[in-house]
Design brief:
Bound molecules: S-adenosylmethionine
CATH topology: Rossmann fold
CATH architecture: 3-Layer(aba) Sandwich
Order of helices and strands: HEEHHHEHEHEHEHEHEEHE
Oligomer: single chain
Number of domains: 1
Radius of gyration: 17 Å
Strand order of the largest sheet: 5-4-1-6-7-9-8-10
Shape: globular
CATH superfamily: Vaccinia Virus protein VP39
Distance between the termini: 46 Å
Length: about 280
């Protein structure tokens, strides 16, 4: 039984980190005229209503996107992400938030494609309505790992995969690295972006070690954001692993993360670290 619903968490500080990294990747892909394909294996609802009972119950977005959505001084990529948030809302009222499918959709040109996977019946229905009549978007209701096995390599060989599980089922930490290894054996040049939470149980550590051994020609990057005083229980950090990041992406995500750590928490700022788990091969 799937119980996780992203509506409780949409726009929180982890989403801000994840979605600004996604925005940077999308902006890199848009720099060339060649078509690209985005695969989003755990897509969520597409767009979130921040006035809905789920969002109001936790108000997590108040400690995330609500603090920064009107800022006009963000570095390139993050400014594009904030523009997408502003485009969904009136000037002074934050009531809707774009999930990863909405950000990816906003980046598509006529020749680009977006392939979404989502298993939860309600989220899948919401996505289906949202994506109806778009010929550039395909939607699958299937398990995220099966999605990766079935849909990689995509028909357009330039692009990226977002892997953003709920980690509700604890073996996801173990099943993801071999699934990505299988995907890379079929699509070596793809960019793979994996989000993970830093929780007190520390289950992410072994997953990161396994991901660091993937055979990535352009290297493997880790970026992690945490609040100035992480809670003893609950989410202590939000991380992204980027396999085969584009050229100069390490500098871009460092600048974005430093800006976010200050913009969200002020003084003292949060911490943002970027490190190569595997250097690009010569
Ligand atoms: C963290 S949320 C995704 C958020 C979305 N990627 C975004 O950034 O806006 C994880 C999603 O995975 C879905 N999910 C849970 N288990 C799944 C599975 N085994 N396969 C595919 N989707 C699953 C949940 O319903 C949830 O919508």
């Amino acid at each position: 039984m799937l119980s996780y619903r992203h509506g409780f968490h949409a726009g929180n500080w982890a989403d801000v980190q994840k979605h600004s990294a996604l925005a940077l990747l999308l902006n890199h892909l848009r720099r060339k005229d060649k078509p690209f394909c985005i695969l989003d294996a755990f897509a969520g609802d597409g767009v979130y209503d921040l006035a809905a009972p789920e969002a109001r119950k936790t108000s997590e977005f108040q400690e995330g996107i609500a603090k920064i959505w009107q800022r006009r001084d963000a570095p390139a990529g993050t400014d594009w992400y904030l523009d997408r948030v502003r485009a969904l809302n009136s000037e002074d009222m934050l009531s809707r938030y774009p999930g990863s499918p909405a950000l990816a959709r906003a980046a598509l040109r006529v020749t680009d494609r977006l392939i979404l996977g989502e298993l939860h019946p309600a989220s899948h229905q919401t996505l289906k309505r949202w994506a109806a009549r778009s010929r550039r978007i395909a939607l699958h209701r299937r398990d995220g790992i099966e999605f990766l096995d079935a849909l990689i390599p995509p028909p357009i060989r330039r692009g990226m995969v977002l892997v953003d599980p709920a980690y509700e089922v604890k073996d996801e930490y173990e099943t993801l690295p071999p699934a990505l290894a299988r995907a890379m054996s079929k699509w070596r040049e793809g960019i793979y972006a994996v989000w993970y939470p830093v929780l007190p149980a520390g289950r992410h550590a072994a997953m990161i070690e396994a991901l660091a051994r993937l055979p990535a020609q352009a290297g493997i990057l880790r970026a992690e954001l945490s609040p100035p005083s992480p809670p003893a229980a609950g989410m202590q950090g939000s991380g992204m692993i980027i396999v085969n990041p584009p050229w100069r992406f390490a500098e871009d995500i460092a600048a974005a993360g430093d800006w976010i750590a200050r913009a969200l928490w002020g003084d003292p700022p949060g911490r943002h670290n970027v490190q190569w788990l595997a250097e690009p091969r010569a």
